[in-house]
Design a protein that fits this description.
Bound molecules: zinc ion
Number of domains: 1
Number of helices: 4
CATH superfamily: DksA, coiled-coil domain
Structural class: mainly alpha
CATH architecture: Up-down Bundle
Helix content: over 70%
Radius of gyration: 19 Å
Distance between the termini: 55 Å
CATH class: Mainly Alpha
Shape: flat
CATH topology: Four Helix Bundle (Hemerythrin (Met), subunit A)
Largest sheet: none
Number of strands: 0
Order of helices and strands: HHHH
């Protein structure tokens, strides 16, 4: 094997290792969020909501549900081979951003544009 082939194989292995790491993180997050959501739903079914404020419980449940959905979508994109591509501009999301929030489906500029739009339309 030539040195060039060896180098490119190593570079590909680096990306594969990162993806494997991100998949591990996502799978762990999925388990954590699913457990949390189950706990919250069970709390909501208890008499007096298990002593929790119903509105707080509703907000936490919704946030957990969203987190489970986001993580599941990221894992789905991984299996489809579209993981790491921005859903807005279809460019590769920088690895640093994926490490910070592995479930994201938008690059920073697209994410900012989205939240600016939802702020303008008055939606959360
Ligand atoms: Zn983008």
């Amino acid at each position: 094997m030539t040195a060039t082939v060896h180098e490119s194989t190593e570079a590909q292995a680096g990306v594969a290792v990162s993806l494997q790491l991100l998949r591990d993180i996502l799978e762990e997050q999925f388990a954590v969020h699913t457990n949390r959501l189950t706990e919250l739903v069970l709390c909501g079914a208890l008499p007096h909501h298990g002593g929790h404020d119903p509105r707080t419980l509703a907000v936490l449940t919704e946030a957990s549900r969203q987190a489970v959905a986001d993580t599941a979508h990221a894992l789905q994109r991984m299996s489809q081979g579209t993981y790491g591509l921005c859903q807005g501009c279809h460019r590769a999301i920088p690895l640093g951003r994926l490490r910070e929030s592995p479930q994201t489906s938008f690059c920073v500029p697209c994410e900012q544009a989205r939240s600016a739009r939802s702020t303008l339309s008055g939606r959360p």
